[in-house]
What we know:
By secondary structure, the protein is an all-alpha fold.
Amino acid sequence: MDIIVFLLAVIVSLVPSIFLYKWIQKKEKDEEYKKISKSAFIKGIIAIFPIILTSLIFNIIGVVSGLKGMNPILYQFYYKFIVLAFAEEIVKFLMFKKVLKKNQYKYSWYNLTILMIMVGLGFECIENVVFSIGTGVIEMFIKGISLGHAGYGFIMGWFYGKMQKTGKKKYGILSFIVPWLLHGFYDFGLSEELLALNDNFAIISVSLEVVSLILAFLIIRFVRKRRDTEIYTEPLTRTI
């Protein structure tokens, strides 16, 4: 029975990500760019492995140093914001840059945004499989449809594209800071230690789950409406 529950949890968590990936690819007519998008998706899958290693190392350090036992709340804040959220957003961004470096293409603001979404979707697929272990079907369905990493990728790609379009570095800073903080607060809000302190802290993760759902809707709207906004589709003149 546990195996059946696990398989169902995996399926319901993966369907939204796979569906969005396929839907975006179907909307794209340029075969060369579709291959680049696929590469970004695969890079997102690869991105989770250094995070697993990093998480394991810092967990061991936390236990050996005694930091984890000294102040559980402070440790969770550090662990969720730095070891997980910060590291995950950095690795995904580096994978995104690797795709750009490897593939020469006349990228537009839209192209950059989609590639970062694709990296997020790839990362999300593997992460959801890991999270499905010991998690209920309903919980994984909610996590699946919220498309958190795709949403963070949307923000990162959109602001990064805006930086390339305008030449203003402040958008480059926002491209990392905004998804990192959203990601960090979401993970921290789910900490057992924080919820044990006060159940009301659950409002943090619930609110950010709603934000993720809104971002998923905005991704779909962005893809559907891109042709109506030339600023998103015209090739960038700046060096990426």
